[in-house]
Amino acid sequence: MKGVVLAGGLGTRLLPLTKVTNKHLLPVYDRPMIYYPIQTLVNAGINEIMLVTGGNSAGDFLRLLGNGKQFGLRHLNYTYQEGEGGIADALRLAEHFADRNPICVVLGDNIIERNILKAAEAFRAQRTGAKILLKEVKDPQRFGVPALDGDKVIRIDEKPKQPASPYAVTGIYFYDAQVFEIIKTLKPSGRGELEITDVNNAYIRQNELTWDKLEGWWTDAGTIESLFLANQFVAQTGANRMG
């Protein structure tokens, strides 16, 4: 399995902090935000990783991360997303890197208390389709929200006004090689972007999507409030814990 970290975007919800830098380079407690999703993949036994970024700060990632040796990687791959095409559009750029291998995708502003090792092992055993990780939250309307029928996800609604469940779809996804063919069939949403929720719903229609609950706390760090919360969480308990 290979890993992809998506670290593009303009970070407009974090202005003025992001006026002169990419949001994933902002500090979360004692290290840059981008360190956390990379460590999430490394802790899941994934050592081939590609970073997808964009904007004017792309070169700063290379200066910060180099070849990834501080994470025990022999090599860290990079690619560049032009414009703002959405999460699925950014993922599309990793097709050649994936080389028909299964992938684990982590959004660059997602930070977790523990690890995804069990989910990664389960997906390796699953071999095909997709797997998402869910977390119960107080404000699911901010996220993609699964509608459940027993233990089965029957659809995912993007930022619904009336959530069908108290769960959020976290920004951690497992996909087989067909994800790139699915992306090619997508049409831009009302926001003009290729939505990752549409990718997940395509797998649901094929009856090929499974899910697990994410253990420990989880937060994105894409708003001033959630960035502040992430700093508090990491200061109190640490992140990417293996115990």
UniProtKB/TrEMBL annotation:
<keyword id="KW-0548">Nucleotidyltransferase</keyword>
<dbReference type="InterPro" id="IPR029044">
    <property type="entry name" value="Nucleotide-diphossugar_trans"/>
</dbReference>
<dbReference type="GO" id="GO:0046872">
    <property type="term" value="F:metal ion binding"/>
</dbReference>
<keyword id="KW-0460">Magnesium</keyword>
<feature type="domain" description="Nucleotidyl transferase">
    <location>
        <begin position="2"/>
        <end position="236"/>
    </location>
</feature>
<dbReference type="InterPro" id="IPR005907">
    <property type="entry name" value="G1P_thy_trans_s"/>
</dbReference>
<keyword id="KW-0479">Metal-binding</keyword>
<dbReference type="InterPro" id="IPR005835">
    <property type="entry name" value="NTP_transferase_dom"/>
</dbReference>
<protein>
    <recommendedName>
        <fullName>glucose-1-phosphate thymidylyltransferase</fullName>
        <ecNumber>2.7.7.24</ecNumber>
    </recommendedName>
</protein>
<dbReference type="GO" id="GO:0008879">
    <property type="term" value="F:glucose-1-phosphate thymidylyltransferase activity"/>
</dbReference>
<dbReference type="Pfam" id="PF00483">
    <property type="entry name" value="NTP_transferase"/>
</dbReference>
<keyword id="KW-0808">Transferase</keyword>
<comment type="similarity">
    <text>Belongs to the glucose-1-phosphate thymidylyltransferase family.</text>
</comment>
